[in-house]
Structures are given as structure tokens and as C-alpha cells.
Design a protein that fits this description.
This protein has 1338 residues and is mainly beta. It is built from 5 helices and 89 strands. A hairpin with a 2-residue loop joins β23 and β24. It comes from Meleagris gallopavo.
């Protein structure tokens, strides 16, 4: 190793060599052998080391400094040399800088300079107050000799000097005082007293980066390496010395980097940087190995080294440098090849590697064996004698004789083919191999070429020199060894003919994206005229070369690939053949627009105003140039002509911002080169969000979770949360045996399934799924599954169908398609397998699966709900074996126009603004899609054509609307219609509302009105006072009351008949004339202003008024029929039973004057109502209506009514009501057979007129009068025509609130009946009673 010494000292350089025969040791200095016999200062020690006494060194005489090398020689083996070692002699003691007076604040670090020559730095020591100074971690000497004192204290004050002790008299520096100052009163700025400087070190050396900072408060020093904090406490690699200097002992290549010293206190921070470079002496990656060989063979010594800087390599044979020649060649950078071995090549070969920081050597021995000695399989591992005693000789036996008739059958300029016949000793020669020895004539170094396989009797000798005589001989070899050699054969290679030289000035340039023109000049050399040229060209990176014959000096090659590198070369031909090829010239074809569109364009909607595009470049080979950017085109789907453009860079994504919210856009993208824009992708569409996604809260629970257990895995699939307005960043899947918290896996937000692997068979796993975003994780969804047991798999298990896809065809139809991997590639079904499709929707959550079977690879699922998300899966069954369910596919049916009108339409007056009303409603129950708007229709004429109504549009998210500037004290009718993206839904039933009078009285809203074509208003009506609710009676009491009512009715009829027989025909005619004069015009026109409004309050959905008489007379005499009344027998029924209003139709139609409407709107009295539900009344009892004991006198205003045949009536509801001096006729109500009978909207049942035509309003007073009554679920009986056969059914008359009133007969003194009319009326009542008896007895 290298040695540092001082003048006058003694130095010993060690050298040891080991061998069976003791080697001779010699020394070289600077490459020259030293004559140690006559040298009195330098002598060889018995162990081979070199001793130099009293090293001589002066400014002009340095005889001992230099590079020394040890040489060991064994006579019978060879010579080896050691690596070189450098002896450096330190110069005369001299100070470059000396300590100076300095002061430092207590706690800071101080530095005292003592710069000396690098060679003398190890000999420097320090004294304080002329006493030796002990060094430690706080008091530290830098490699330059300077002294660092860290974290100074008062004891560090004093006088310092440094001393150089390099042999002889010590040399002292000047003394300098170090003063320790007390802490200052004010902070002092941080400054570096000594900064680190960049260093280059050799591996194994110590590195010190000095870093001394001063200031107050006392700074703290820390270090970073390549920007990362260095941990120096308790570290084996790094240590801090003297308050901040960094020590790196035994440096390695891993320590290379940028080191930063950071000094900081409470007020500020300062930094200083330094680079550390590390050099590495040469090291061997592969050392040469010992080799046994025969003469004439070729051998290679391998040597592979590394180091920094890169080492140089030289080879030494027996101590002498090997000079490369025809037979000694350096191959593969550092390997030594020796061709045609001779005996003198035997010896030691050493590979010596050197760089700036060291050298290394590795050697190997070459041993030449006799031909009759077999080469051992393992090379020798140590130096050994060249004798053959250590090797077993080949087995004894007859050797082959010489091969016969050796001839050269082909002689060229650089190769010769030899053939021969087998030896006489072995005519077959199947087991013989041959060695062909050859050499240049006059050269004693033979080379050898062996045949490739036994029995072969020819060989091709290559790499010969032209016009040279070679001597060949052939030796046969069998298992016993080499035989006799053939006689030498001399063969001269052919002289090399004068072929054309390379064509000069070959040039190639691209003329277009697909063509290149190549030009050249006539070759300068050549024997004979150039006949033609061959132009070779090849695509860069390919192996196959193409050629074309050319007669001239240029050629244009077409059909090349765009923007692709090609290499070209030219070979000239003359009569002798091809000449020397030119060097390759490389040129790239010109660029063009890309020939293909970018790939995999995907759109990601970020928010309501931006969409992120991602894509991949066009396929390789289609770029046609350097891609310089991408052109993005986008437009609204609704506006085909509005196309915008945005040019992105070479990145593969682009955020398009500034879009409109809730709008669908089309995007396409094309790649660009400097030549232009290539083809674009197909349009891809995406719709921005209606509103920005919310990330102020965690996502909601995923809408579904499905698990499919296998033996060691579980396939988990899910659907995202229903609320798409909250950001979902991903999903967390937890699972474990019995608990889902054992392990957690997080997947991307786009993922919809995941396979949990490496599970235990036959184990119960609990699985949880949570959606998460930056706020946190949402509510988990739990599922459990038991993995399948380990079992012998079925030889042909049924695989579940794959590729399940749901194609939406309409609002209620989805086509499911799939593939079956167990079928042939053509997917043709030839066996009896069938497929089961199952589907369900998650709304409501407990919906059950529906299934259907199919024998093809698709199925049409029909009868689905519009705008509903369904999930589908498929399984295959063959015989008794079935597959598991496939992965689920999802599809949402298309929207459909709403199939129901808006619900719960109400109209109220705005407080303080009588001309403004507020319309409220609820969305349709069957919206079939997102409601995008509502249309409010209103008119003062309920029968006007719909296009004459006033229209008020409302946006879809509103459920209330104000309508202003209406006319005071006027009835209005309102209808509402909903719409979605598919169109308009049905209208709601008309709702009537009368605006308040000018005095500010509140208007009155009503339930929906049903106006039919057959309805005409009566002349007068009656009102009843409010009643109070009473408890319902039991069924027996009800029967008694009903029978009593029937009896009373018969008595009243008899009394009326007595009066009627006394009346004359003239009275009857006068009455008819009076009826016509009063009501004739209003019957048909409906615009009379002087007619009292009707008081008929019948539920508009269930009852249909029928004329009592079918007479064509437009205004016959109305029968004055008293109405029985018993307030205790009527039960109120809550009008909330009213549902499905839009499905009902009635038979009321006509107009009502403002006067009649005003009269109706003013009525608020409670009226009793009658229902006929099933279920409550026991059968086998008859119900009769008995006349009441109270009678009503006839009014002076006689109502008119048509007569009705008994068989045309559907039954009658009987009741009574009271109004000032007015009486009601008996109404007949037809109950539709197809609809349930519901309660009247208003309690009273007034009499029916004959044929008038007003709109009938209804006021929902029942809910105000008796809100606490429960809703009655009513099944109704359909009452058919009297006299017609019908099945019996029970009838129940529920109780109603008490109506405290007096019933009186209103009798007209002038009224009378004709005998035939009385007979018909009696028949009518008898038919009614029979009908009631038949119903109750059933």
C-alpha cells in the first residue's frame, strides 16, 4: 500500500510470494530493476521486503520518492509482479497560515488556522498555554491542521499554537490568544466562520465537512443530504464534531451527494452546500483463470474490472508487458487471446488495472501439455510445475495412422477447404476426429482447427491472408489419443483481384414522407469497367436488408414508411464481382399528418362546468412524424353547427372548462404534427352535472352489494350510492372471518367489482363496503358469505355465462345478451342446456327477483317500470348441473311520459291580496322520469276548449305557484299537467276557486269538480243546519231505523195520493206552464242570472243522475216527493278515501251562472250523507225505508221533475234537508258497477232536478266538521236497474253526526197528481223496497 514518510526516517515495503519452489524476489522502482547488491541504503530482507534506511529528500534531490513494485520469479514456472505502491516523502515543515488573535461569544464555536502542506497535516498537533491539547468530539483537528473548538466555555480561553513534528526538531507556529466573550445584550446576525467545500475522496478514507457558524442566540447546526435530513445522533455513518462539522468515516460510493449545512437560531437560518465525490480503486469482477492447453490451440484469458474513474488494463507475461500482435490480441475490451500456442507461451499472465487512485493485479498460469496427455476438466487452482507428472495419461491402445490424400479442394483469397481420406488403420473412421494444424510458411507458430463432428473428413480454414503460402497437416485422434500426422501440404491463397472500391460521396435525402433519393460517385479504384451498382437499404431496427440494381449514380426508393429512419449503402460491381461496400448513411423520411386517430378517448365529468379528457397517442407506426399536439373539438349535442376548438400540448389529457351546466357535449380529438392534423376519433358524449358534486359530507351507502363465494376467493360486486350529487373518491372493502375489520382494500371510484383472494375454504366471512371521499368514509353495507369447501372439481364444471350486457330498448323493455365459454367459438348450442335470467330493482329494497328461462344467448325482458335501474344476472343449467350466477349487468329503462296527473291540487287566496291566489300540488305518483316542468291551466268556463284556457308554465322543481290580477268575486277552474323529457302527462281534475269579493271576504276552494253531460240544475234547494257527531249505532239499531224510514215513506205516499185525487186537470196545466216559464231557457243555455243555485251535493266521482221519466216532454211536472229523515242513522265518512280521482268519470255537465255559484259557495252547513259499503252488515236481513212522522209542507215554488220508469232506475238515496220555504225533490243516483262507491264530499243529499246543465261544485266541509273520524275502507255494491236479476249483496248504512233539525212537510195546496202518475210512483216505491229486501236477504 502507499506510504507517507518524512526525511531521514526508515521505510519497509512488504512483499510475499508463495510457491513449492522458493521464488526469487526482486524490486523495481518506476519500472526499473533495483541493484540492491551494491546499495548501502536499500537492502532486501529475508522475507522479500524492501528496507530503505534514512530516506533522502531535498528540494532538488528525491531519490527515494516514486512507485515500487515487487517481482517474484520461479525458474521452471515464470515470473509474477505485484501491484505498485507509491512512496511519498513529506516536505520541509512550513506554515501556510498561522493562528491569529480571535474572540468568540460563549457557547459559539471558534476556529484557529494552522494551514500546512497536505503531506505534513498528519504531523500537526496543538498546544494551549504551551501544554499539549487533548482532542475529543468538542475540540477537533481538521484534515488541513486547523483547530475547531465547539460550544466554547471560559476554560477554552488562552494562548494556542500548533507544532509540526515530522522528525527532527519540532517547528512551532506563532502563539495567538482566544478570548471568550460574555453573551451580548442584543441578538447578533448569523454568519459562517468556516463553510464546507466540495471534496473528492477515495473509498475507505475519512471525510470531514467543516461548518462553523457564529451569532447570538447561539446557532444550532444540522445537516441534510440531497435535501433529506441526516440523522447524526447514534449513527454509525455520520457524526457531528466541534459543534457542527460533519464526519463521515470510511466513505463509500453510497455517500456521494450534496451536503447542506443548516445553521439556525430563533431569529434566522443560513445554509451552505458542498458536493462529495467518491473515487474507487480498480476492483476485479472476473479474474483470469489457470489454463491447460496443447500446442497450436487458441486460448483466451478473461479479465473484467471496475473502478472510478474507469481503469485502464494491460497484460503482463512473466513480468513483461504483452504487446498486441497477430497472435496476441485484446478482445472484448480487456480479455487476452493467444492464437496458435507454442511451448514458449507457457508462463504467468497477469491482468493489471490502474486508475488515478490505485491499481490492482490478478494473474493466471498457462500450462502447455504434450499431445498425448489429456487436458484435465478442471484447471489448476494454484501455481504448479509445468511437468506432466500430475496428470493421468490417456488410456493405452493403438493410435490411428496418418490420414491419406490431404488435398485443397477450394482455394480462395481468404479461405481454403481441405479434404482427406480416413487412415489405413481405421477405414471406417466413424469414431475419429481430426485436428488440422496450419501456419504461414517460415513461421513456427502453428494454429489448429478441429472438425466439428466424428467421421467428418473436410474442414474450412478461414481468416487467411491473400496471396500467402500456408502449410497444412492433419492428425487423426481416437479414444487413445492423437495418431500420426499427415505429410505437410503447402497451399497458396489466391491473390485478391482488383474489385471496385467503395463509391465515394454517398448521400441520401428524403424527398417525401415515403421516398428517399440516394446519390453517389464512381469508385476511384477498380480493375475493369463498372458494370452496375447494388443499392442496399434497411429500416432502422430491422434485420432484413433489401436491395435494388441501379445502372446510374442515383436512385429514388419509394413506398417507404413515413417518418422512419432507413440506412443505405452502395456496392459497385465489375467483371470480378462485388466491390467494397460504402459506409451506411442514415436518413429519415419526411413527416406527414398522422394516419390514425388517437386511441382510448375517455371523458370524466369533473363538475357542472368542466370535463376532463384522457386519451392515448395513435398506434405506433401511424404517427407519421413527431406528435406536436392534439386538437380537441367539442360542441353541444343540441347545436350541431356550434363547434369550438381547443389545442392541447403533447400531454395526454386536457381539462375543458367553462361549459354550461346540465348540458350534453360531444368531443372528438385528433393528433397533430408540423404537417397538419390527422383523422379524428368518433364523437364521444358526456353531460355536465346539473349542479356541482358535494364533498362537504361523506358519501351515502352504496345502493347494492353482492357476493359470490368460491373456494379460496369471494367476488364482490356493487352499485354506487343512489345520491349521485356527493363526490365518491373510491370504495373501501373490509373483510375477515366473523368480522369485517381484519383487512381493508381500497379501490378506485370507477370500479364496480373486486375479487378477494387467498381466503380459507369453508369459512364464514363478513364483508363490508363503504364509499369514501376526502371528508371520510360513508355508511357501510354489510354482507356475509361462506367460502366453498375444498372438493375434487368436476371434470367439466359449468362455467357461468360471461359478458352479460343489458341493452335498453324502450321504457319497459331491456334485452339481455351473454356469452357462454363452455360453448364452441361459434357459440352454437347443440345440447339441451338452458339459461335462467333473473332481474330485480332495488327500489323498494325488499323487491324479489323475477326469473325466466331461455334457450338462446339472449332474452327480452318486458313489463319493466319506466326510468328504473334494474340488475340482471344469468346462469346456465345442463342436466343436473348448474353454474353460479354471472356477474351482474345493470340497465335503466328509458323515461316515459307521466301516466298520472299531479296530486293534491289545492287553491288558496293570498292573505292581503284578494286578486292573487296560490296553487299548490304534489308531483304525479307515476312520474316515469324526472319532472322538468308543470303547466297550470285556468279558466272561468270549465267547459271551454282547452286551448282557450290561460296557461302558466312552472319549472319542475316547484310545487307552488302564484297567479295574480284575477277578477274579484269570480269562480275560476284550475287544472295542472306535468311534463318530463318524453312529453306531457294527463291533466288533473278541475279544481274550482272563487276569488273574494271586493270587501275582502275570503274565496273558497273546493275539491275537484266532475261535470257531466247529463246534469241539469234544480230550481231550488234546501240547507240543513250543522250537526254534531254521534257515536255509530250497532247494526240491529240501524235495521230498525231503516225499516221505520220505509214505513214512514209509504204512509207519506198514501197521504199525498189522497191530496192528488182532489186536484183538477186545470191546476196541473197551470203548474206545468209555471215550470216552463221559470226554467225553460236555463235548461239549455245555462246562462240565467235569476235562478237559485242547486243544493245538490253528491260525490262527483260515484253518482250519476238519471231522469225519473223518459218522456220526451222537455219540462213535465216534477213529482213532489217527501224525503224521510233520521239524523241518528247516518255516519260520516272521511273524504280522504277519495283516491285515483283521475281514473273516474261522471255524468254531470253544464254551466252554472255566477249567481248560482255564489249561492253554492256561501253554504257551509253540514249535510248528512249515505254510503253502501260491504263487510259490516250481517246478511239475511231486509232493509226498508219507513216514512217519518214529520212531514214537509209543499213549497210555493214547486220543483219540476221528469218521471222515470221503475225498470230504468238504479236505486235511490233518500235523505232530507231544510232551507227557508223550499223543498227538494227525490234524486236518483246511479252507482257505476266498475268503481267503488265513495262518500259524498258534502254531507247533505239534496233532490235532483230533471234536466238542467250547471257545473256542480263541492266544498270539502266534512274534514272541517269531523276531522277525527277514521278513514273507512269501503267496498261498494253496484245497484242495478229495478226489476233486473242481480246477485244479492249486504248493505250497510253507516252512522253520521247528529243533525239537530226539524223535518217538516212542505206542501203546496195546489199540487195534485193524475191517477196514472200516482200509480207509476207507487210502483216505483214498491220496486225500491223489493230491491232493498233482495239485497239485505242476500
Amino acid at each position: 500500500m502507499d506510504i507517507l514518510s518524512v526525511r531521514g526516517a526508515s521505510v519497509i515495503m512488504n512483499c510475499s510470494a508463495y510457491c513449492e519452489t522458493p521464488p526469487k524476489i526482486e524490486w523495481k522502482k518506476d519500472g526499473t530493476l533495483l541493484n540492491l547488491v551494491s546499495d548501502d541504503r536499500r537492502q532486501l530482507l529475508p522475507d522479500g521486503s524492501l528496507l530503505i534506511n534514512s530516506v533522502v529528500h531535498s528540494k532538488h534531490n528525491k531519490p527515494d520518492e516514486g512507485y515500487y513494485q515487487c517481482v517474484a520469479t520461479v525458474e521452471s514456472l515464470g515470473t509474477i509482479v505485484s501491484r505498485t505502491a507509491k512512496l511519498t516523502v513529506a516536505g520541509l515543515p512550513r506554515f501556510t497560515s498561522q493562528p491569529e488573535l480571535s474572540s468568540v461569544y460563549k457557547g459559539n464555536s471558534a476556529i484557529l488556522n494552522c494551514e500546512v502542506n497536505v503531506d505534513l497535516a498528519p504531523f500537526v498537533r496543538w498546544e494551549q498555554d504551551r501544554q499539549p491539547l487533548l482532542l475529543d468530539e468538542r475540540v477537533f483537528k481538521l484534515p488541513s491542521g486547523a483547530l475547531l473548538v465547539g460550544n466554547t466555555t471560559d476554560t477554552d480561553g488562552g494562548f494556542y499554537r500548533c507544532v509540526i513534528e515530522s522528525g527532527g526538531t519540532p517547528k512551532y507556529s506563532e502563539e495567538a490568544e482566544l478570548k471568550i466573550l460574555p453573551d451580548p445584550e442584543e441578538p447578533q446576525s448569523l454568519v459562517f466562520v468556516r463553510q464546507p467545500s466540495s471534496l473528492t475522496k477515495v473509498t475507505g478514507q475519512n471525510v470531514v465537512f467543516p461548518c462553523v457558524a457564529g451569532g447570538f442566540p447561539t446557532p444550532y447546526v444540522r445537516w441534510t443530504k440531497n435535501g433529506e435530513e441526516l440523522i447524526t445522533e447514534d449513527s454509525e455513518r455520520f457524526a457531528l464534531r466541534a459543534g457542527g462539522s460533519l464526519l463521515i468515516p470510511d466513505v463509500t460510493e453510497e455517500d456521494v451527494g450534496t451536503y447542506t449545512c443548516v445553521a439556525e437560531n430563533e431569529n434566522e437560518t443560513i445554509e451552505a452546500q458542498a458536493e462529495l465525490a467518491v473515487q474507487v480503486p480498480p476492483e476485479f469482477l472476473k479474474r483470469p483463470a489457470n489454463i491447460y492447453a496443447h500446442e497450436s490451440m487458441d486460448i483466451v484469458f478473461e479479465c473484467e474490472v471496475t473502478g472510478k474513474p474507469t481503469p485502464t488494463v494491460k497484460w503482463v507475461k512473466n513480468g513483461d508487458v504483452v504487446i498486441p500482435s497477430d497472435y496476441f490480441k485484446i478482445v472484448k475490451e480487456h480479455n487476452l487471446q493467444v492464437l496458435g500456442l507454442v511451448k514458449s507461451d507457457e508462463g504467468f499472465y497477469q491482468c493489471i488495472a490502474e486508475n488515478d487512485v490505485g491499481n490492482a493485479q490478478a494473474g493466471a498460469q498457462l500450462i502447455i501439455l504434450d499431445l498425448d496427455v489429456a487436458i484435465p476438466t478442471l484447471p489448476p487452482t494454484s501455481l504448479t510445475s509445468a511437468t506432466n507428472d500430475h496428470l493421468a495419461p490417456a488410456t493405452t491402445g493403438p493410435l490411428p495412422t496418418a490420414p491419406r490424400d490431404v488435398v485443397a479442394t477450394l482455394v480462395s483469397t481468404r479461405f481454403i477447404r481441405l479434404t482427406w481420406r480416413t487412415p489405413v488403420s481405421d477405414p471406417q473412421g466413424d469414431n475419429l476426429t481430426y485436428s488440422i494444424f496450419y501456419t504461414k510458411e517460415g513461421i513456427n507458430r502453428e494454429r489448429v482447427e478441429n472438425t466439428s463432428r466424428p467421421g467428418e473428413t473436410q474442414v474450412m480454414i478461414q481468416n487467411l491472408m491473400p496471396e500467402t503460402v500456408y502449410v497444412f497437416r492433419v492428425v487423426a485422434q481416437n479414444k487413445h489419443g492423437h495418431g500420426e500426422s499427415s505429410a505437410p501440404l503447402k497451399v497458396a491463397t489466391q491473390p485478391e483481384v482488383q474489385l471496385p472500391g467503395p463509391a465515394p460521396n454517398i448521400r441520401a435525402y428524403a424527398g417525401s414522407p415515403t421516398s428517399v433519393t440516394v446519390t453517389w460517385e464512381t469508385p476511384l479504384s477498380g480493375n475493369g469497367e463498372i458494370q452496375n451498382y447494388k443499392l442496399y437499404y434497411m429500416e432502422k431496427g430491422q434485420d432484413s436488408e433489401q436491395d435494388v440494381d441501379v445502372a446510374g449514380l442515383s436512385y429514388t426508393i419509394t413506398g417507404l414508411k413515413k417518418y422512419t429512419e432507413y440506412s443505405f449503402r452502395v456496392v459497385a460491381y465489375n467483371k470480378h464481382g462485388p466491390g467494397v461496400s460504402t459506409q451506411d448513411v442514415v436518413v429519415r423520411t419526411l413527416s406527414d399528418v398522422p394516419s390514425a386517430a388517437p386511441q382510448n378517448l375517455t371523458l370524466e365529468v369533473r363538475n357542472s362546468k368542466s370535463i376532463m379528457l384522457h386519451w392515448q397517442p395513435p398506434p405506433a407506426g401511424t404517427h407519421s412524424g413527431q406528435i406536436t399536439g392534439y386538437k380537441i373539438r367539442f360542441r353541444k349535442v343540441s347545436r350541431k353547427s356550434d363547434v369550438s376548438e381547443s389545442v392541447g400540448g403533447t400531454q395526454l389529457f386536457q381539462l375543458i372548462e367553462g361549459l354550461e351546466r346540465g348540458t350534453e357535449y360531444n368531443f372528438r380529438i385528433a393528433a397533430m404534427t408540423v404537417n397538419g392534423t390527422g383523422p379524428a376519433t368518433d364523437w364521444v358524449s358526456a353531460e355536465t352535472f346539473e349542479s356541482d358534486l358535494d364533498e362537504s359530507r361523506v358519501p351515502e351507502v352504496p345502493s347494492s352489494l353482492h357476493v359470490r363465494p368460491l373456494v379460496t376467493s369471494i367476488v364482490v360486486s356493487w352499485t354506487p350510492p343512489e345520491n349521485q350529487n356527493i363526490v365518491v373518491r373510491g370504495y373501501a372493502i373490509g373483510y375477515g372471518i366473523g368480522s369485517p375489520h381484519a383487512q381493508t382494500i381500497k379501490v378506485d371510484y370507477k370500479q364496480r367489482y373486486y375479487t378477494i383472494e387467498n381466503l380459507d375454504p369453508s369459512s364464514h366471512y363478513v364483508i363490508t363496503l363503504k364509499a369514501f371521499n376526502n371528508v371520510g368514509e360513508g355508511i357501510p353495507l354489510y354482507e356475509s358469505a361462506v367460502t366453498r369447501p375444498h372438493s375434487v372439481p368436476d371434470p367439466s364444471p359449468m362455467m357461468p355465462p360471461v359478458g352479460v350486457q343489458a341493452s335498453i330498448l324502450s321504457h319497459d323493455t331491456i334485452r339481455i345478451t351473454w356469452a357462454d365459454n363452455s360453448l364452441p367459438k361459434n357459440q352454437k348450442i347443440t345440447d339441451a342446456r338452458y339459461y335462467t335470467v333473473r332481474w330485480k330493482t332495488n327500489i323498494p329494497a325488499n323487491t324479489k327477483y323475477k326469473t325466466a328461462n331461455a334457450t338462446t344467448l339472449s332474452y327480452l325482458v318486458t313489463g319493466l317500470k319506466p326510468n328504473t335501474l334494474y340488475e340482471f344476472s344469468v346462469m346456465v343449467t345442463k342436466g343436473r348441473r348448474s353454474s353460479t350466477w354471472s356477474m351482474t349487468a345493470h340497465g335503466t329503462t328509458f323515461e316515459l311520459v307521466p301516466t298520472s296527473p299531479p296530486k293534491d291540487v289545492t287553491v288558496v287566496s293570498k292573505e292581503g291580496k284578494p286578486r292573487t291566489i296560490i296553487v299548490n300540488w304534489q308531483p304525479p305518483s307515476e312520474a316515469n322520469g324526472k319532472i322538468t316542468g308543470y303547466i297550470i291551466y285556468y279558466s272561468t268556463d270549465v267547459n271551454a276548449e282547452i286551448h282557450d284556457w290561460v296557461i302558466e308554465p312552472v319549472v319542475g322543481n316547484r310545487l307552488t305557484h302564484q297567479i295574480q290580477e284575477l277578477t274579484l268575486d269570480t269562480p275560476y277552474y284550475f287544472k295542472i299537467q306535468a311534463r318530463n323529457s318524453k312529453g306531457m302527462g294527463p291533466m288533473s281534475e278541475a279544481v274550482q276557486f272563487r276569488t273574494p269579493k271586493a270587501s275582502g271576504s275570503a274565496g273558497k276552494g273546493s275539491r275537484p269538480v266532475d261535470v257531466g253531460p247529463d246534469y241539469k240544475p234544480p230550481l231550488s234547494g234546501s240547507n240543513s243546519p250543522h250537526g254534531s257527531p254521534t257515536s255509530p249505532l250497532d247494526s240491529n239499531m240501524l235495521l230498525v231505523i231503516i225499516v221505520s224510514v220505509g214505513v214512514i215513506t209509504i204512509v207519506i205516499v198514501v197521504i199525498v195520493a189522497v191530496f192528488c185525487t182532489r186536484r183538477t186537470t186545470s191546476h196541473q196545466k197551470k203548474k206545468r206552464a209555471a215550470c216552463k216559464s221559470v226554467n225553460g231557457s236555463h235548461k239549455y243555455k245555462g246562462n240565467s242570472k235569476d235562478v237559485k243555485p242547486p243544493d245538490l251535493w253528491i260525490h262527483h266521482e260515484r253518482l250519476e243522475l238519471k231522469p225519473i221519466d223518459k218522456s220526451p216532454d222537455p219540462n213535465p211536472i216534477m213529482t213532489d216527493t217527501p224525503i224521510p229523515r233520521n239524523s241518528q242513522d247516518i255516519t260520516p265518512v272521511d273524504n280522504s278515501m277519495d283516491s285515483n280521482i283521475h281514473q273516474r268519470r261522471n255524468s254531470y255537465r253544464g254551466h252554472e251562472s255566477e249567481d248560482s255559484m255564489s249561492t253554492l259557495a256561501g253554504r257551509r252547513g253540514m249535510r248528512p250523507k249515505m254510503m253502501m259499503p260491504f263487510d259490516s252488515q250481517p246478511p239475511q236481513q231486509s232493509v226498508r225505508n219507513t216514512p217519518s212522522s214529520d212531514t214537509m209542507p209543499a213549497s210555493s215554488s214547486q220543483p219540476c221533475a221528469d218521471h222515470q220508469d221503475p225498470d230504468s232506475s238504479s236505486g235511490a238515496y233518500l235523505g232530507s234537508a231544510q232551507e227557508e220555504d223550499a223543498a227538494q225533490g227525490l234524486p236518483t243516483a246511479h252507482v257505476r258497477p266498475s268503481h267503488p262507491l265513495k262518500s259524498f264530499a258534502v254531507p247533505a243529499v239534496p233532490a235532483a232536478g230533471s234536466a238542467y246543465d250547471p257545473a256542480l261544485p263541492s266544498t270539502p266541509l266534512l274534514t272541517q266538521q269531523a276531522p277525527s273520524h277514521p278513514v273507512h275502507s269501503v267496498k261498494t255494491a253496484s245497484i242495478g236497474t229495478l226489476g233486473r236479476t242481480r246477485p244479492p249483496m249486504p248493505v250497510v248504512v253507516p252512522s253520521a253526526p247528529d243533525v239537530q233539525e226539524t223535518t217538516r212537510m212542505l206542501e203546496d195546496s195546489e199540487s195534485s197528481y193524475e191517477p196514472d202518475e200516482l200509480t207509476k210512483e207507487m210502483a216505483h216505491l214498491e220496486g225500491l223496497m223489493k230491491d232493498l229486501n233482495a239485497i239485505t236477504t242476500a
